[in-house]
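Q: Got a minute? One more chain.
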Amino acid sequence: MTYYKFFSLVFLICILIMNYSCKSMVIKDDDSASDKTKKVLGRIFLGVGTFGISEGTIEDYEKEYDQEKKKSAVLRNISIFTLQAIENIGKAENEIVLMTRQQQEEKIKYYMVIANNLLDNADNKVKGLKDIKDMGDIAKQFKDAVTDIVNKKKQLIGYWLKKEYGAAAAYQTLTNQKIIEILDKILQLSSSNKYIFSQDEIYKIIRLREEWTKLTKFRFQPSPKQTF
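A: Always. Here it is, folded:
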């Protein structure tokens, strides 16, 4: 019985080592030329040592790797369209700030029109996400969140025009916090899947998040000489 347990344990350890070895032999796109050569040679020797069993295991890991890459490509597209929408919302935010600093009605309307157009552009950026089948839940989540932000930004403009400055400031804080939540979700996806964004791209998203965090502290102030 003791020998049986001993050999069972040894067999289990061998299986675990072989599985780890097989997984490390999967050739990936970001492998260097020397790494790819080492893996090819390693697979040859590993296949001989395990009578070819390891090659079948490696093929299973390769399929898993390919599926992960396809999933990453979809998530990257979803994230990029969402980030493009956020970029347009950021431009609209700048125009809204300029609008709140104007004293003449004509200039106020000018900046308001630009802001609304940019918000419409943001909404259009994510409309196509509804057609994504794979990862559809995440696509719908981002699309609905952006559309809600766009609608609330437009309501914000309406509140400010009606001189309801408290409501306008509250909506500005609320919408910008929602943008931060979206960016956090994108960063979370990227941290669990390294094929979505490169490290440089992740740093840019982190900096973008920092900028939006500053904007949540902004409060709209009525111009003392404002006329309608």
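A: The chain has two domains: 2-51, 72-215.
Q: Perfect, thanks.
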